Amino acid sequence: MTRTHSLTYPARMTATLASIHIYPLKSCAPLALEYAQVETRGLARDRRWMVVDGDGRFLSGREQPRLTLIRARPDAGDTLQLDAPGMPTLHLNAPPVDGVRLAAQVWDDAVSPLLAAPTAHVWISAFLGQPCHIVMMDAGCARAVDADYAAPGDEVSFADGFPLLLISQAALDQLNGKLAQPVSMLRFRPNLVVAGTAPHAEDGWKRVRIGEIEFEVVKACIRCVFTTVDFERGERDASGEPLRSLIGYRRTDKGVAFGQNLIPRGAGTIRVGDSVEAIG
């Protein structure tokens, strides 16, 4: 008799955390970590800096694919090192808490981040070819998570909407099986990649424990043209992939879903290799 039970996945699955990524400057190149500190707003140093245009509106890889070529690496304290093709290395110190605050916009959220030094604005304007500024989120710059999905007091960084994004490795493997040219998981800009599950197992989770920390799984991540940006070239893929293929099998009434947004329900350190357990 043929056995088939080895192909099923129980509701209370146990898997592992395969990789951790942060994006210190919103839309910059991904930075892989072996461990990370979980904070209320997400992973420490993830999307705490951002580029805004002359009107204070946030810029992302959707409008400026070249942002993905910037390699942002946190230095000691709250300083940031930026490198980009054809540009000198820029070292940014955290602005003083009594420094200039800029009225800025992230989607529909009004925020008041600290304005970085003038050298930062010269550097980023030259690289992107348009007048813009770099700003930093400090403790005095608060941004609430959408109340439809959050508990009172939940906050988020300059990420699009939620503190963390999780994707199963099996979901990418399934997608790449449909593509003529496989794409990297980092096209989807996850914070956490989980191995050892069925494709899109995360869609059925309500709560998950990673290491010793619990997270609420609150909303599918709806995908856009940013997924077509090759972050190693800083350009959109002329084929429209992988979004074109995703539309064929991951379209929902809200849009094309790939990955799940999380809100932390605890703080502490997570590490690559930590167990991942769906607990609800």
Provide structural commentary:
With 280 residues, the chain is mostly beta strands. The chain is 9% helix and 34% strand. The protein has three helices and 22 strands. The strands form six sheets. It has a seven-stranded mixed beta barrel with strand order 1-14-13-20-16-15-22. Strands 4-3-21 form a three-stranded antiparallel sheet, with no helix packed on it. It has a three-stranded antiparallel sheet with strand order 5-12-11, covered by helices on one side. β13, α2 and β14 form a beta-alpha-beta unit. The longest helix has 11 residues. The radius of gyration is 19 Å and the shape is globular.
Mean pLDDT metric: 94
* Sequence of secondary-structure elements: EEEEEEEEEEEHEEHEEEEEHEEEE
Low-confidence runs? 1-11
Radius of gyration: 19 Å
How many DSSP E strands?
Answer: 22
Percent in strands: 25-35%
Query: What is the CA-CA span between the terminal residues?
Result: 34 Å
Strand order in space, largest sheet: 1-14-13-20-16-15-22
Task: State the helicity in percent bands.
Answer: under 10%
Shape label? globular
Biggest sheet: strands, sense, closure?
A: 7 strands, mixed, barrel
Oligomer: single chain
Q: Helix/strand/pairing class, anyone?
A: mainly beta
Give a quick summary of the entry.
The chain is mainly β.
Topology:
Layout (H helix, E strand, L loop, with lengths): L13 E9 L8 E3 L1 E5 L2 E2 L5 E5 L17 E4 L5 E4 L6 E3 L11 E3 L2 E3 L2 E2 L2 H11 L3 E5 L27 E5 H8 L15 E4 L11 E4 L2 E10 L6 E2 L4 E2 L6 H7 L1 E2 L2 E10 L3 E4 L3 E4 L2
Parallel strand pairs: 13-14
Antiparallel strand pairs: 1-2, 1-14, 1-22, 3-4, 3-21, 5-12, 6-7, 7-8, 9-10, 11-12, 13-20, 15-16, 15-22, 16-20, 17-18, 19-20
